[in-house]
Design a protein that fits this description.
With 374 residues, the chain is mostly helical. It contains 19 helices and no strands. The chain has one domain: Hypothetical protein af1432, CATH 1.10.3210. The model has no long low-confidence stretch (mean pLDDT 94). The structure holds magnesium ion (MG).
């Protein structure tokens, strides 16, 4: 890690772990956190969870695992450009989606509705819960005992009410201070990754078309550039050449604007970063274009009738699983039954949230289909 900026996160100066541990002789604290995340159960399950589409609908779509890898790759690149700590961004990126339910946003919304009277369900909080409590692998503590900086990065947003119950990582939402630049940029890398891979997945699956997307400035400009340079390019390469240019436009703008903000505010340390407004952001022009792209995706892809059909199925599965377990906790696996004696709704939510798409479908079939063997 050459040229680390004075305001970058520094593992040697980490605020620390919840439980004291001797340092590793071969890895810095953030590398060690990254390794713990990769070896976790929740990380392996990302392979069979999806954002927009149901996992078994085809091999066309990104899974949460490949999404997380793309986020890590972009975040590391941005961190390197800005002389920030790459290992920290990688750890945050790989952990940021660990708390997602099966079936993407439809699953999370359904579970949140089921939990309305019991504190709600929020995937971001659940990611933190996974690394702080739900992973059970170490002799001396629950969770992964990650450094403050990684946990801070995982908790992207949070209500004041929830923040008050979260201790150290909740404090900044109460104080209205900023997280590390590494946390800020990983959040943007997440957004750049999913907007662009959703375009790619959407086009390849035929749910959206190049004609529709031509009304979106960010896409149209880059498409025109590719067409001028390669007038006879076949569709598959045309899409990829366009999407990679869009990613590049966004990443370069983010790096340029953020470097400009940093130069303007002259932070000297990570303590300064926490007191300053967020310094990682797009220029106004690109922010506006990015917003248009998001609106397009919301209208034309996330609410495409075929996606709505999948979402409706997902909602029904989650709702029915919640109801059946809530009604009879004797149907839960033993470890969750024990926890249900302390907090029934949360035990049911944790169990459902941990499921992959295919596991949830299978559980639903086992519980609701008479012919199915248990
Ligand atoms: Mg994500």
């Amino acid at each position: 890690m050459n040229n680390l900026a004075p305001y970058a996160a520094n593992p040697a100066l980490s605020i620390g772990r919840q439980f004291n541990e001797p340092p590793s002789s071969t890895r810095n604290a953030f590398q060690r956190d990254r390794d713990r995340i990769i070896h976790s159960t929740a990380f392996r399950r990302l392979e069979y969870k999806t954002q927009v589409f149901v996992n078994h609908e085809g091999d066309l779509f990104r899974t949460r695992l490949t999404h997380s890898l793309e986020v890590a790759q972009m975040a590391r690149g941005i961190a390197r450009t800005l002389n920030l700590h790459e290992d920290l961004t990688e750890a945050i990126a790989l952990a940021h989606d660990l708390g997602h339910t099966p079936f993407g946003h439809a699953g999370q919304d359904a579970l949140n509705a089921c939990m309305r009277d019991f504190g709600g369900f929020e995937h971001n909080l659940q990611s933190l819960r996974v690394v702080e409590q739900l992973e059970q692998r170490y002799a001396e503590f629950d969770g992964l005992n990650l450094t403050f900086e990684v946990r801070e990065g995982i908790l992207k947003h949070c209500s004041i009410k929830n923040a008050k119950q979260l201790g150290d990582v909740g404090q900044r939402f109460i104080d209205k201070t900023s997280p590390s630049l590494e946390a800020q940029l990983t959040n943007y890398a997440d957004e750049i990754a999913y907007n662009n891979h959703d375009i790619d997945d959407g086009l390849r699956s035929g749910l959206i078309t190049i004609e529709q997307l031509s009304k979106v400035e960010l896409f149209a400009q880059n498409l025109a550039e590719v067409k001028t340079k390669y007038p006879k390019l076949e569709q598959k390469r045309l899409i990829h050449e366009t999407v990679r240019r869009m990613i590049n436009t966004l990443v370069v703008d983010l790096c340029t604007q953020s470097a400009h903000n940093i130069a303007q505010h002259q932070p000297q340390s990570i303590a300064d970063i926490r007191q300053l407004p967020p310094l990682v952001n797009f220029s106004d022009e690109i922010a506006a274009q990015n917003q248009k792209l998001k609106q397009f995706l919301r209208k034309n892809l996330y609410h495409h009738y075929k996606v709505n059909r999948m979402s409706a199925k997902a909602t029904r599965i989650v709702r029915e699983l919640f109801a059946v377990f809530f009604e009879n906790t004797g149907l839960l696996p033993n470890e969750f039954q024990t926890y249900a004696e302390i907090d029934k709704p949360r035990a049911v939510a944790d169990y459902i949230a941990g499921m992959t798409d295919r596991y949830a479908i299978r559980e639903h079939r086992k519980l609701f289909t008479v012919e199915e063997y248990l």
